[in-house]
Amino acid sequence: MKRLRNGKRCGPSQHKNLEAARRDGQSLETGGIASNCQVLSAVSIMRMATMELLKSRSRMTGDSSTLGYASAFDSGLTHKHAKHLKHVFCLLDAAEKFSNQQYDEAEKLLIFLLSASHADHPIERVVTCFARDLQERIYTENGKFDLEREVVDVDVEQELADLKDAIFASEQLLPFTQITHFTAVQTILDSLTSAEKIHFIDVGTKLGSHWMIIVHSLANRKTFPVGQLKITAVCTRKDNVEEKVEMLSSFAESMNVPFIFKIVNSEMHEFKQDQFELEASEVVAVYMEFCQTALAASPSNIEALIGWVKNLNPHLMVVNEIEADVCASTFVPRFHEALFLCSAMFDCLEDCLEQDNRCREIIEKVYFQEIIRNGAMSEDDGSFRQFRKINFWREYFAKFGIVEMELSQTSMDQASLLVKESPCWKSCTLGMNGKCMLLGWNEIPLRSVSAWKFHKD
């Protein structure tokens, strides 16, 4: 099992990237034959580009427009890989020029990229996404409008609703949803081994693919048989989780698990206690997926969410979040971080889904829009979407007396086995940051799972 290095930043931190790029570069440069046979990942190309960028800066005396271009063809790479590397250099150069308000020079580079880049490799799709939106920002800064350019915002909720069945099938092929859900659910159930009545409150759910796991696990419990399982799904009306209820209820009945399912349609920061019909004899556990990311731009909303969860008096709260830090106050660091995140995600989709899988395109669009357009590509005025890493949330939760707990050993062992089961997941990486599990691709952390308890007043 590959492990992230102590949970430390493996993204565009310069020292980490320099190390990784040297490693990748050496493995490719030791022989032309080996390099001809290998297909470099988008992350590997990004690491090599970062290394060359640092080298170029250290020796640069003149025009920065030639950053690393020559070395791209002297590195023992195939022509195709050298082309990919050149396109990344071009994009990085355009971002630097944009940051320095050299809009005309940046736009020339982007026009070249958009005419030369194709969808034959994940890095090319990443470059195209970034180049298009960076060009849009240049038009905005210059007060120009491209009347022929159509900017389409993806309605995330509607896309998920329209393609729910296809996405549900596709997510079985991807590690992130499966492993994070299983780890979270198993940790909760392992903490409730003697509970007779369990109330599982699921906040932020979209597909509910993990509910079957809960029912199946409780049905197989040998000691302390469960007297009642209640699942409350907190979601929007677009999520259409009602479709799952009948199938889930039938499954629970067939497994002899007494079952109640409740839906609460509400915004995450507007919950009311009486919506959840709590019983004195039941033990409450809360599972939150992407809730902090959705509310982080509004401190008052996230404080309201935490206050609501605390009032539920949960036995345990497990959090499944995006592991990203696209929150630097200046543009270029955000841009670099986002490039690595997108490269890792697009690599994963390339390895796990067929090229003609429509869901791959949708996931790429949604991921790019949420992480990049609403994060890295937003204005430098603090209004951008707040994507944070576990270290930030750990400090934030501590202010509210929320104590981090260990994930269960069973859940960690099973996560490791799941990674090994699929040959497509060979680049999936598991690691720990303190008590939190990090899940990534090509050593770039993308998701975190952590467990928490509220300190009793």
UniProtKB/TrEMBL annotation:
Region entry Leucine repeat II (LRII): which residue ranges? Answer: 243-275
At the top level of its lineage, which domain of life is listed? Eukaryota
Where does the record place Basic and acidic residues bias? 16-25
Q: Name one Pfam family in it.
A: GRAS
Region named Disordered: 1-25
Q: Which InterPro entries match?
A: TF_GRAS
Keywords tagged on the record: Transcription, Transcription regulation
Annotated stretches, region: SAW = 377-453
Q: Which PROSITE patterns match?
A: GRAS (PS50985)
Family indicated by similarity: Belongs to the GRAS family.
Classification via PANTHER family? OSJNBA0084A10.13 PROTEIN-RELATED
Q: What is this protein called?
A: DELLA protein RGL2
Q: Which species does this protein come from?
A: Sesamum radiatum (Black benniseed)
- Source species taxonomy: Eukaryota, Viridiplantae, Streptophyta, Embryophyta, Tracheophyta
